[in-house]
């Protein structure tokens, strides 16, 4: 028997709610690898999956949410993994379409796992989580498109959130000037401690675009917000610079013009963490082990247990979680 946070749907109201239950291993879904989960975390998507309507992501109940986890292989019918291996999982719609990491055990496809790189343990991997992994993918995409330190400030939007905090710490560690956009001025010291060299108040950037081109301010951007802010930022990028579009915390619309693309050669790079090929996942986790300072990561961590999750899910949807939550499922 093992413990899990199970969402069940009320037949009358159609609303789902969460409770901690004891499950039997036979209840786990099919998959080649059974993992004893050590830690999971809370991402924006987890907030959606924990909500009463499942955020449009969860279709079948009962459901175990948790879009990522790190732990130890207990049993494997796939040659790539054996009992005792340390692994991490992000993406592949685990925690949405497939049972996820808010449990002491998970059973998944071998293809979805990545061996934990040397220098990173399960707790640190979940302090990074999907949010931090995606931040690394965004930094890698900007570098692949020519970003180097010394070109000017790199903007990070939604900076005090999970993606933003990790992006700020990685960029700071790599020697970039980091301009951190936040709607929470009280997080300024925290953001500076992570590596931000400049704090940009959210209200300076979230107004609708009035002029398609403004001053060329930013050498790159990791954008977790989307909406009006992304539209505004496009018009403030330096010539030939790139924006990595990661999230939609501020909205899914993009009320922009094509002028920054045509007159300044600005690039808009889409970042998707869910379906990344194995080689890229491995590369990103290895880069995380080397380029994300662990003391900075520790400063972002808010510890939690399974029983804290319903409240944390609501908090992250309200933009009220600072940094990264690490859930000890045991
Ligand atoms: P968080 O909630 O931790 O961070 C989002 C941050 O955005 C908040 O902390 C807040 O930062 C800012 N924010 C919130 N609401 C608004 C608003 N209305 N206008 C402007 N800024 C706002 O979430 P995550 O960091 O986990 O995820 C960020 C986004 O990235 C989400 O949309 C998520 O779905 C997406 N994502 C995408 C992935 C992909 O594969 N593409 C993978 C992982 C996440 P502050 O308080 O500093 O202003």
UniProtKB/TrEMBL annotation:
Keywords: Membrane, Transmembrane, Transmembrane helix. The chain crosses the membrane at residues 125-142, 154-176, 239-263. It comes from the Bacteria. Pfam families: ADH_N, ADH_zinc_N. Residues 14-327 form the Enoyl reductase (ER) domain. The keyword Transport does not apply. Gene3D superfamilies: Medium-chain alcohol dehydrogenases, catalytic domain (3.90.180.10), NAD(P)-binding Rossmann-like Domain (3.40.50.720). SMART domains: PKS_ER (SM00829). PANTHER family: ACRYLYL-COA REDUCTASE ACUI-RELATED (PTHR43677:SF1), SHORT-CHAIN DEHYDROGENASE/REDUCTASE (PTHR43677). This is Acryloyl-CoA reductase.
């Amino acid at each position: 028997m093992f413990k899990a946070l199970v969402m069940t749907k009320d037949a009358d109201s159609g609303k789902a709610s969460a409770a901690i239950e004891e499950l039997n291993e036979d209840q786990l879904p099919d998959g080649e690898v059974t993992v004893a989960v050590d830690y999971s975390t809370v991402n924006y998507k987890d907030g959606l999956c924990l909500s009463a309507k499942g955020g449009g992501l969860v279709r079948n109940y009962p459901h175990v949410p948790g879009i990522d986890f790190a732990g130890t292989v207990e049993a494997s019918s796939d040659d790539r993994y054996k009992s005792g291996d340390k692994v991490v999982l992000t993406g592949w719609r685990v925690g949405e379409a497939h049972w996820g990491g808010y449990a002491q055990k998970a059973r998944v496809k071998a293809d979805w796992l990545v061996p934990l790189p040397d220098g990173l343990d399960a707790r640190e991997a979940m302090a990074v989580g999907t949010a931090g992994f995606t931040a690394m993918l965004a930094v890698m995409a900007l570098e692949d498109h020519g970003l180097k330190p010394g070109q000017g400030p790199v903007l990070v939007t939604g900076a005090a959130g999970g993606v933003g905090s990790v992006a700020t710490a990685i960029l700071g560690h790599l020697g970039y000037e980091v301009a951190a956009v936040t709607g929470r001025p009280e997080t300024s010291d925290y953001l500076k401690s992570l590596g931000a060299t400049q704090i940009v108040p959210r209200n300076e950037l979230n107004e609708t675009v009035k002029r398609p081109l403004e001053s060329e301010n930013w050498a790159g951007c990791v954008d977790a917000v989307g909406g009006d802010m992304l539209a505004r930022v496009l018009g403030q990028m330096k010539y030939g610079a790139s924006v990595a579009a990661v999230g939609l915390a501020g909205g899914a619309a993009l009320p922009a013009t094509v002028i920054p693309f045509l007159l300044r050669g600005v690039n808009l790079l889409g970042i998707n963490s869910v379906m990344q090929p194995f080689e890229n996942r491995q590369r990103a986790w290895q880069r995380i082990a080397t380029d994300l300072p662990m003391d900075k990561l520790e400063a972002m961590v808010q510890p939690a247990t399974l029983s804290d999750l319903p409240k944390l899910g609501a908090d992250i949807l309200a933009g009220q979680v600072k940094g990264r939550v690490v859930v000890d499922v045991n």
